[in-house]
Amino acid sequence: MRTTVESFDQSSRLPEGKRRWIVDTLVPAMPRHEVAQYFRVKHALLNEAAHLSVASQDGLCAGVAALSGHDLADGRRMAYIETLLVAEAFHQSRTTFRLLSNVFASWSRQESAFPDVVAMRTYNPRTYVLMRKFALEDGATNFYPALSTPNVQHEATATLVAVRVAEGHVFEASSGIVLGGSVGVSNGFWHESPSCGDSKIDTFFYRRMTANDRLLCFVDTSSCRAKYHAMRKLGLPTPIHNQETTV
Prior knowledge:
Layout: E1 4-9, H1 16-29, H2 35-41, H3 45-48, E2 51-57, E3 60-71, E4 77-86, H4 95-111, E5 117-122, H5 125-132, E6 143-144, H6 152-165, E7 171-172, E8 177-178, H7 199-208, E9 214-220, H8 224-233
Parallel strand pairs: 4-5
Antiparallel strand pairs: 1-2, 2-3, 3-4, 5-9, 6-9, 7-8, 8-9
């Protein structure tokens, strides 16, 4: 049976019955993760997300993605991925892509524009790799953080992003690490330490971070070229490509 994806935003709030269904069916669908504790800590997330996409199959929740919107101090508009949870049986499917495509389509319809910055905090090397896919391919010059080279050119933006999504935590702009950035989510959320198979990336997470920390990642999509590339990667309708590359 085909997976379906629904959208909810501030004009079409998530019904309470739907919220309970998400929690009640996603928790047993992710037995290697502490999802019940996650939703207890983030109990308001599903109701307060500016944009929410919900995947389902055979009457069960297959995954959720949620966005919030923030204005950075320099005037740029940022989309922050609050959560991306996918049932374990769907980890090798296109469900993750469909959730992200759907939630950013919802954003673009409501905002009439793609965001200038797309950010997320994570302890999962696979999520880091996923975020990097939306960056330009010529050296990933609009992606933060690089794990093996200095991040000087993006540290100013990283600091602005951290003010919005990591307030009250120590943030290392040189590395992207938010100390204590789990914000109450159990250190045992992953029953097994997540990995992506890239030894350099996995080693960075294992050696530089604890399960209580998070890595702040973002793609700077301020330029027309960067927006076009990210929208194409997400399968969204794109405007006429503009070669302008300045931010």
